[in-house]
Amino acid sequence: MIAAAPWLVPLVVFAVALALALGINAAVIARRPTRDSAALWTAVLVWTAGPLAALVLYAWTLQLVDAAWWHRGWHPLFDATGLRLALPWLPPLDLRVPSPVGPDGLRLAHPEWWALAIPFVVWLAVLLTRLVLPAPVRAPDQARPGAWLAGSAGFENSRRWVLWALVPPLLLLLLWSAPDLGEGLAQERAAPWGLLAVVAITLIAIAFSRGPDAAAATDQAGAAPPAAPGDWAAALRGAGFAVQTLCRLPATEAAPESREPGARALLDQWPFLRERRVAPELIEAVADLFGPDATRRGGRNRLILAADDAGQLEALAVAIQLTHLRLELVTLVVVPQAPAAFAARLAPWLPGPEAIHLPRAAVPIDSTAMAWVLDVGTLSEQLADLGDNPVLLGRIGLTVWFDLDAYSGVRAANFWALSHRLDRLLRARGAQEARSLTFARDHRGHEANFAAFWSQLLPYDYQPEERVLVARRRPHPIAIHLLEPGADSRPPDPANPDPGDPSLAALRASVAAGWRTRFDPPPTLDLVRAGDFLQQQVGGHRLAERLAPDPADAAARILEVGAAQVLALADLLAQGGRALTALPTHQVGLLAAPGNPYVRHLLAQLAQDPEAFFRRVRRLVPGVPQPAIVRRHLLLALREMEAVASGLLDTFQWRDAILDPVLEELANRHEIARRDVRFLDDNLVLKVDTGYRSSAAQYRPGPLDTVGDQLVSVVLREAGGALALLQRIDPERATIVAYPRRVFQVAGQSYRMNPWPATSAAAIRRAGVLYCTRTDDPALTWRVSEPRLRRTQVDTRHNQVFLDQGGLNKVVIQTWYEEEVTGIIEVRPERHGALRRSEPLWGEPIESLAFPTQGLLLRFLAEDLDEAPAALHSIAAALGQVLAVHVGVEEDAVLVMAAQGLKVGRRRESGLVILDLHPQGLGLIDALNDDDDLLRRLLAYTRDWLAECPCAAAAGCPLCLQSPPAIAATRHSVERRLSRGEAVEVLRRVLGG
């Protein structure tokens, strides 16, 4: 029968293999969440057809070149006796063809069957191997596996067009017995026929590799939360947490896709913009910024105001690539801190990690990268090098300022000068087509003072058409819960260590319940200890592998909320789960940061009236120039590029009253050189001015959280005597930020200050160094100090203002501040996550340096205080914590103290003094003095908080006046001489209500 119909064997083999392929294809589609098997069949085709085609071509080449080589056994095909390879310098390989014995006693050999079987055996082996191996995980920005062969452009997601590619191999298959297929033995024709057969079968499988609902499933692949996660709140309660649902926010209507041609072109070129539902306003802003000059709205600078995680990273990645592709230039991205972590979040949306370079001191800048990502401190150090290298400076085509809101107080004052220095260099030596992007939150309401904030910090004058407001949307319903650790907060698995930190325990419970969770480490958490904790197994996977890389990818979120975050929750949480398409509710677990109980009070108000809570904003303080900061940045600016006095005044907008004395001082100290210059201005008018250039051999810029030049180094003293510089601080603030036994964090690691070698900061300034050691102690510390004011005078530049019918008035004062540190208070988390406060640890008193600063004196009427001796100290302890929430300054940058009998000029005054704890002051007092409504609100918030506290104790409780920072404020509060009732009564008299 076979002899009569020689085509029967290959036909049966083809049919069986095709049925097997279609069956496997259906099974794979049914099991895969993507409903797509293209990656499988593309790999099978490549690894099968490639080697086999090479072998067949090799065999044909041997026969065509010299038949003698074929007969010597150098071909890779079976002949009548088997496969025999006798290559030079290698032992011969001889595989005999098994053949049955015929009726006449002779063996019947069918070598063509073996030649036919080889491609099918290889194909089946590759297919089974590919099924066993796990599918490769693709990044969100990467193309779909197999898309290069199994694409469907123009065919409405169908792959049936692949069937047209079957025409050539099928026509050749039908020519099985035709002489056109090749002369010679049958096995010579069977080998290519088998190869064509497996290619045809694989192409048929690719044509049917996409399930009917694959289009929707592909968008969900890698983005949907784990299947059927458990009850999130119940899981946290099961882990020992008290869970209070503060509010539930409904989802808002999705934004329609942009119809602008430029934005639609970006959506088509970078599909992840559509897949991750990036805000259309962001896409339109990037498209407009890089569009033709004739159609661009406004200039080449954009200020984008949006909630966090609305798609800023994805839009920035597109802007970086447009800068590279269209301008052939580099993007400079400046972040407040942690540039490596920021680059890791940005990298998935760029062609590869090599597209990002992290500049560091003493390391050459990679000019081939698409983007340079660095923090403001590194930029300050690198700016002089950029100024000395015009080629690198000319490579910058886009400057990006990310997270503008993070700068406030002393960092804002330094950032202001730094941004103007960079803009000055770019205008003089940079690319003409350079652009800028600034990302900030949408601060609604004039109370935030955001317009004055950005106009002072940045060198750009944004016109209305250059400001992009992204509507605040919620892609999914949000449930916000308050998590409080209980006594039974224990690890569910005894084999896993107890995390100690409640945020880690909450994270583990959320992940164990099947929720892909975003974890924002608290600022006081030791990241080394947290990294060890994240290596434990949960559900058969490492905990670190189950975390969401961004809030947009998270079904749940664990977040510790402190003074800087509580009023920003609307922006922090709105875009949770944005990139997920099937998420019933985005779960958020909030933990109140230890130290400021007013945050806990505000979260309770969120439960009562969410709309009123979200209307509150934080007042931003841009910082003002003061002589020490002006001196620092003036030296750096003149080292980067010479300037005339009028140019410095125009660039930095410093007042003549500050700039002229600093220039005179630096010239007298021979740190700058000056000369008379003449030049023509823009109107061709001859001008005469004084030119300045730096004559200092070397000048090392200070950290951006300092103001002076003569700094004290905080050095890590390790075992064996090795030393490592951790910080540099202002000596005037040594007792504030580096007091003995203080626990602090640098780069995610915890350190404790060693005892001081002297009892005065003056001796420390002369020594220039303080030492610390590495610690695993998770303690939080506050200093116990006695503040003192000397040489206090009324600032005659400001008028005295009476508030609330004369019961309270304010006046700005100039004073000298000093303090005596007498001990510390430590707080440690218990095993179950609750906090245990120690009694004050007393030590030998340490005197600080005295420094001049500004203050705001709030005078109370004597009759309001006569019968309430503890009122001022109690109000001061509470107002300090309220002010840290509602005004954007660091908690250690401001002090509220009670003043009783304070000598101001020739008078004795009683009241509250709000002090700026930086030498010379940085604008905090001016911000408070200029806004009477803000002062009234701060006092009213303090009154309401103390009045609504549920405690019955006269001296208050840990939820109001007995918190660690309130107790440590002065020795008066340490001795428990506080009264919640007296404070409320006095504030009611002054404010009413």
UniProtKB/TrEMBL annotation:
| Name under which the protein is recorded | MrfA-like Zn-binding domain-containing protein
Is Isomerase among this UniProt entry's keywords? no
Task: List membrane-spanning regions.
Answer: 6-28, 40-60, 113-133, 161-178, 190-208
InterPro entries named among the record's database cross-references = MZB (IPR018973)
- Residue ranges, annotated region (Disordered): 483-504
Task: Give the MrfA-like Zn-binding domain ranges.
Answer: 876-961
Any idea which UniProt keywords this protein has? Membrane, Transmembrane, Transmembrane helix
Provenance organism: Candidatus Thiodictyon syntrophicum
Record keywords: Transcription included? no
